[in-house]
Amino acid sequence: MRVAAFDELTAGLGPERLSPATGSITEITDDSRRVGPGCLFVARGTAPDGPWRGWVTAACAAGAAAVVAPGTIEVPAGVGLAVAPVVDQPLAGRIAARFFGDPARGLKLVGVTGTNGIKR
Fold it and tell me: Which residue range is the domain that position 23 belongs to?
């Protein structure tokens, strides 16, 4: 099982942390129905008052340790929840890459270009 601190996952990436995390991140999901204790919930959306707000509420009720959301959210008093408002959605991908050990680093990429052999 992977375990990481929210501050480690977001260090240098620029999100503002509104409140400190109380525990370690053991899982990342963007489905509020799969959130449990220790989970980082990534809320997707762009509208300021879109459906993602309800998903964040559900994730908090399920015991999420942290939330990455496309806007600011109010954290209830006494809830130990780390929050990162996201200006750009790729930030969530960079956080996930760190959590899983930057798997793209080990990929070798080769591109082949050319024509179909027809000369004019």
Answer: 6-106
- Considering only CA atoms, which of 62, 70, 73 is closest in space to residue 32? 62
According to the model, what pLDDT value does residue 64 have?
Answer: 87
Predicted confidence (pLDDT) per residue in 27-62, tens digit = 999 899 999 988 988 888 777 777 888 888 888 888
Has residue 4 got a pLDDT over 80?
Answer: yes
Domain count across the chain: 1
Return left, alpha or beta for 30; rule: phi > 0 is left, psi -120 to 50 is alpha, else beta: alpha
Q: What is the pTM of this model?
A: 0.74
Please check whether residue 82 lies inside any domain of the structure.
yes
Cβ contact 58:33 at 8 Å: yes
CATH number at residue 81: 3.40.1390.10
